[in-house]
Amino acid sequence: MVQLFQLNLPAQNSGSGFDSHPSFSIARKETMKVRLTFKTPDVLDDALDEIGDAYDQLPIRNLCKRWIQYEEYITVEIDTEAKTCEVVPL
């Protein structure tokens, strides 16, 4: 039997100029897996701005779409038994 817990936390100002809306769900069986979803507007644009024109940014942006939804949401899954953390593909 697997138990799933979902928690949506209120928006918090992280001090970086935007509100984050963290949420997570916990799937529990023999081990515990925790999924955390982060909303980080402009994080992809900021990272691409840092690399400047040294690389073509379109292929990088398209590659990131596999893990980053709407260029601002990313979900990670933490396995407490294996002590690992993975980005969840969309």
Explained architecture:
- By secondary structure, this protein is of the alpha+beta class.
- The protein has one domain.
- The protein starts with a strand and ends with a strand.
- The mean pLDDT is 77.
Oligomer: single chain
Number of domains: 1
Query: Using only CA atoms, what is the Rg?
Result: 16 Å
The H/E string reads EEEEEHHEEE
Number of strands: 8
Proportion of residues in helical segments: 10-25%
Rounded average pLDDT: 77
Structural class: alpha+beta
Largest sheet: 6 strands, antiparallel
Please report which band the strand proportion falls in: under 5%, 5-15%, 15-25%, 25-35%, 35-45% or over 45%.
Answer: 35-45%
Question: What's the tally of helices?
Answer: 2
Backbone shape: elongated
Q: Which residue ranges are poorly predicted, with pLDDT under 50 across at least 5 consecutive positions?
A: none
Q: Report how far the terminal alpha carbons are from each other.
A: 25 Å
Features:
90 residues, alpha+beta, six-stranded antiparallel beta sheet, two-stranded antiparallel ribbon, 2 helices
